[in-house]
């Protein structure tokens, strides 16, 4: 464990309620979910956790191997945050949905049992035109958001889909028998035009109405009490006002985030100053509103910049005024030789990633304290 010296036993430090930081929007949240939220807040004062999408399901050149991740193959530790997706819980046959439920349960429970954290994206198939998938396709996709909110033609269909989400949430338990907490991040990058819930395809009122209904129905009607709700636009903003254009309100969000590939090297273009300023806007709002902040998606496809980790990403995370609970890079495709965002053994940025891993500021799964307990070993 890289932080052995930092984790010398000084006693289990209780998180006092008076200085515990932000509170969840779900007053009936499970003890483990409350503990995770408060502990992430405490850890984020001095650290950022590293995450990788689909890290435990597949990687560069492999699929479905037990207890394997490309990150572990390089560093000896899995990522602290593991990204999964609820995309397989709708728009498919009942048999396929059942298979996907079982796979998700195992991945999420295994991560919890190891002491890691799960964050959930939702590349949600358009319920009105399922043949178009989750992307918006001109001339083929239907403007679904207005049809999913109360009073819409597909509202009951949407409630049925949310019941499947709740079935997964309310049946995924760890070895200790407890429901597993998850950071649920629906309708991400809503300020862009590529998803059917994106800015050009619904009004701000329709989008916020969908978000509020989703949270309220899951929490209050379906009794899901192990979700931390994360709001994460893309990087198409330069001010707080623009960032909050489709924000559903503090009563419906636990974590504020940002997805930003464009400023961090996509297509060979860097604007790190702009990227850091956007991270500051998110951090500042989180502090003002009593929320957590996270860098919910980023990365450099194929990682051709061999010092990207320590000369681009790490300085951004450590910049003045930036406080991110975690940073998550996107997936490593099984078959594609170029679609990957974390190094694998032999990849050009491997040595630099090991330096990123060794930095005391970054935390990986092997470094985590017991984040599901209301007190943990201070770092």
From TrEMBL:
Provide the transmembrane region boundaries: none
The organism sits in which domain of life? Answer: Bacteria
Where do the annotations place substrate binding? 123, 194, 261
User: Where does the GH26 domain start and stop, copy by copy?
Assistant: 31-366
Q: Which residues form the active site?
A: 189, 297
**What GO molecular function annotation could you give as one example from this UniProt entry?**
mannan endo-1,4-beta-mannosidase activity
Entry keyword Secreted: yes
Top enzyme class: hydrolase
One of the protein's GO biological processes? substituted mannan metabolic process
UniProt keywords (A-Z) are: Carbohydrate metabolism, Glycosidase, Hydrolase, Secreted
Q: Which family does it belong to?
A: Belongs to the glycosyl hydrolase 26 family.
Q: What is this protein called?
A: Mannan endo-1,4-beta-mannosidase
* Annotated organism of origin: Arsenicibacter rosenii
């Amino acid at each position: 464990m890289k932080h052995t010296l930092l984790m010398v036993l000084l006693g289990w430090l209780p998180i006092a309620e008076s200085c515990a930081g932000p509170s969840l929007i779900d007053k009936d949240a499970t003890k483990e979910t409350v503990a995770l939220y408060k502990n992430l807040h405490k850890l984020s004062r001095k650290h950022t956790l590293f995450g990788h999408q689909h890290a435990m399901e597949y990687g560069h050149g492999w699929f479905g191997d037990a207890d394997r991740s490309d990150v572990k193959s390089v560093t000896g530790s899995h990522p602290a945050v593991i990204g999964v997706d609820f995309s397989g819980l709708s728009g498919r046959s009942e048999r396929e949905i059942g298979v996907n439920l079982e796979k998700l349960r195992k991945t999420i429970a295994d991560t919890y049992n190891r002491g890691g954290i799960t964050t959930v994206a939702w590349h949600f198939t358009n319920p009105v035109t399922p043949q178009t998938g989750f992307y918006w396709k001109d001339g083929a996709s239907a403007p679904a958001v207005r049809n999913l909110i109360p009073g819409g033609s597909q509202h009951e269909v949407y409630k049925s889909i949310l019941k499947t989400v709740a079935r997964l949430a309310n049946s995924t338990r760890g070895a200790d028998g407890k429901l597993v907490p998850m950071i649920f991040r629906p309708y991400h990058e809503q300020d862009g035009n590529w998803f059917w819930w994106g800015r050009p395809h619904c009004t701000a009122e329709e989008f916020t109405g969908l978000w509020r209904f989703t949270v309220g129905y899951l929490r209050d009607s379906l009794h899901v009490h192990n979700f931390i709700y994360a709001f994460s636009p893309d990087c198409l903003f330069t001010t707080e006002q623009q960032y909050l254009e489709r924000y559903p309100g503090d009563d419906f969000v636990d974590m504020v985030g940002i997805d930003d590939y464009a400023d961090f090297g996509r297509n060979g273009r860097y604007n790190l100053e702009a990227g850091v300023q956007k991270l500051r806007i998110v951090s500042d709002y989180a502090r003002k509103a009593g929320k957590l902040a996270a860098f919910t998606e980023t990365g450099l496809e194929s990682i051709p910049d061999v010092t990207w980790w320590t000369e681009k990403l790490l300085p951004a995370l450590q910049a003045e005024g930036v406080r991110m609970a975690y940073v998550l890079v996107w997936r490593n495709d099984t078959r594609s030789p170029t679609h990957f965002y974390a190094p694998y053994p032999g990849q050009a940025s491997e040595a630099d990633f090991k330096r990123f891993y060794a930095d005391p500021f970054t935390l990986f799964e092997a470094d985590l304290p017991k984040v599901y307990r209301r007190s943990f070993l201070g770092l």
